[in-house]
Amino acid sequence: MKFPFVKPPITGKEEEYFLKAFRSGFHSGGGPYTLACQSFIQKQFKINKSLLTTSCTDALEMASFLINGKIGDEFIVPSYTFSSTANAFVSRGMTPVFCEIDEKTLNIDVRKIEALITKNTKAIIPIHYAGIACEMDVINKIALKHNLIVIEDAAQAFNSKYNGKYAGSLGHLSTFSFHATKSYSCGEGGALNINDTIFSERSEFLWEKGTDRSLVTKGLKNKYSWVDNGSSFLPSDLLASILLAQFENINLLQKKREKLFNKYDQKFNQLEKLGLQKITIPNNVQSNYHAFWILFPTNKQRDLFIKKSLEKQISPYIGYVPLHNSKMGEKIGKTPNKLVKTESISARIVRLPFYIMSETEMDIISNNLYNIAEKCLIF
Ligand SMILES: *Cc1c(COP(=O)(O)O)cnc(C)c1O
Predict the structure, then answer these.
(1) Summary count for the chain: helices (H), strands (E)
(2) What tens digit of pLDDT does each residue of 343-353 get?
(3) pLDDT at 1 (0 to 100)
(4) Whose CA is nearest to atom 8 of ligand 1?
């Protein structure tokens, strides 16, 4: 038996909804399933306005248009993230300023943000790694003080909470990912969430190729025309039908993920005495259990763990390759301070297989990985 790193979640209703959408003849964007998904997000997470997109990358690109990012503008972003978090804004000519992470959550270290602010800083873009929400109250306070825009990259945090409020509802703007590797998936998909209403009207123009078609749909105009920047950011309603099936099963998916998380947690608790660190959920955070990571004392042990696991047909995976010393990051980014933790952690971290699986699979995977990890730690 082979155990992959991730599998797209399937809850059972996807085929039925997909077929309905297919047969309805409404295959383009903005159809009934899209609207149902958007209204689910708005109600469930108390988000002012949500627009489905073809990816989280696209949602971030929409955000870069909305904030009128331009050459010379800077944004503060953790180096420990996916390339899209930076790339979407770099495409508008903006400069990423890379920030250190916190060693407990691997999220942006909020104590290091203020020192990076200059007269050119326009936005702070934190990400909620592995579904653990960032210290958003602190980030929002800093942003308010310096008049900055906060964009949460909540790609991994669909259904996570911070201080009782949902991730994605806390920044001026936020984004979700529904990529096949994420906890809720339609293959390729995402959403842009607009909490600050000053961005609402333009977000619809950008979404529909820079036109004011949304005003026609609302009956406010009888002809639409080209009014803004934009692109074709809206996904096919066929994809939204798959997503809606998963949204409707959010409690089931959450419970299944929690079970796997707790299984890993109990197992790997026993290895902390040997120096292994693992993901922990802070008291003020409620996780969506997107992922489980462990951190070895050395890079050698980590690499050995991956090698031995693959020999057993189990596929753990490394975390992010830091952006600040990537080819693009070095060329166009700024790294005012040495990012010691980012570099050390990215060399020692490993993420364990995480998807909706049977209890038998959970037992096989967690027992095997535990045994391998123990050997690597005393190696
Ligand atoms: C997955 C991910 C993205 C990209 O999502 P896509 O939907 O594939 O574009 C961006 N940011 C973070 C933090 C992610 O985990």
Answers:
(1) 13, 13
(2) 999 999 999 99
(3) 87
(4) 179
Query: Which numbered atom of ligand 1 lies nearest the CA of 188?
Result: 7
Burial letters 132-163, b for 16+ CB under 10 A, else e: bbbbbeebbebbeeeebbbbbbbbbbbbbbbe
What phi and psi, each to the nearest 5 degrees, are found at residue 105?
Answer: -105, -20
- Quote the ligand 1 centre to 225 CA distance (angstroms): 32
What is the whole-number distance in angstroms between the Cα of residue 175 and the centre of ligand 1? 9
Provide the 3-class DSSP secondary structure of residue 240: helix
- A 10 A CB-CB count for 228 gives 17
Cα(184) to ligand 1 centroid in Å equals 12
8 Å CB contact between 125 and 75 = yes
Model pLDDT for residues 69-78, shown as the tens digit of each residue: 999 999 999 9
Kindly report, residue by residue over 103-132, the tens digit of the pLDDT. Answer: 999 999 999 999 999 999 999 999 999 999
